[in-house]
Amino acid sequence: MTDTVAARIAALQDDPATASLRRSLDVYYGDPERDARMDAFYARLVAPGDLVFDIGSHVGDHVGSFRRLGARVVAVEPQPLCLRALRAIYAGDDQVTLVEAACGAVAGSVRFHVNSANPTVSTASSHFVRAAVGAGGWEGEVWDSEIEVPVVTVDALVEQYGVPAFAKIDVEGFEDAVLAGLSRPLPALSFEFTTIAREVALRCLDRLTALGFDGFDVALGDDKSMTFESWVPAHEMAAHLVTLPHEANSGDVYCVSRSGSDRSGGGAG
């Protein structure tokens, strides 16, 4: 992290207007060891000069990793407060393009459920909000307001910016809707899953298989460490996700289309 970026983050941490982002900024920035682990992990999927889509950018720590790896980044984020942070942190970086929208199945708009105290779990999925009620590990989470946000499809992003080498999708239970707006395989992507909404992950796997993705692995939580260390078929990944304990909470499934990528020789972990 450069001194300039560190100063911008410190200003956001001290700004009362962005107080609800303080926890995210504290966790996701300022830890060189975490940054190094993230960079080493994504270096297997992202090369200098690549285009990357970061769908659900939040405060942009993944944007930072992709930029350190030399990639161009299209960062998609609907929350005004997060967009304020992204604009501040990546001001002047012409290799980062901010798209002020949610991703979904069709262009238009969607009602977005905001968790003011914990914006990282704000979501466009009303089902996700209902699933969290009474669930272990989700105690105290409250989605206390709603906003209308524009929706863009992944296909539209591809048409405007080009085919990404990698797309990260982290949208709190709306991942299946995002993938419904994609009509072609990409070299690689990841989508978040949660144990309170496993059916969303299963629909994602079905959609990705239909699109031609044929290799899958998974990393639990924020740990950038693959479970299988090889690309397994969708049915094996589905069986694994179904049997995970509730306490596993969340993770990211990594997916490749090996016929369309030259970076498919084994797992990404």
UniProtKB/TrEMBL annotation:
GO annotations under biological process?
methylation
The Methyltransferase FkbM domain covers which part of the protein? 54-188
Q: List the molecular function annotations (GO) for this entry.
A: methyltransferase activity
UniProt keywords (A-Z) are:
Methyltransferase, Transferase
User: What SUPFAM superfamilies does the entry give?
Assistant: S-adenosyl-L-methionine-dependent methyltransferases
Q: Which domain of life is it from?
A: Bacteria
Where are the membrane-spanning stretches? none
Per its UniProt record, what Pfam families does this chain match?
Answer: Methyltransf_21
Q: What is this protein called?
A: Methyltransferase, FkbM family
Q: Which organism is it from?
A: Micromonospora nigra
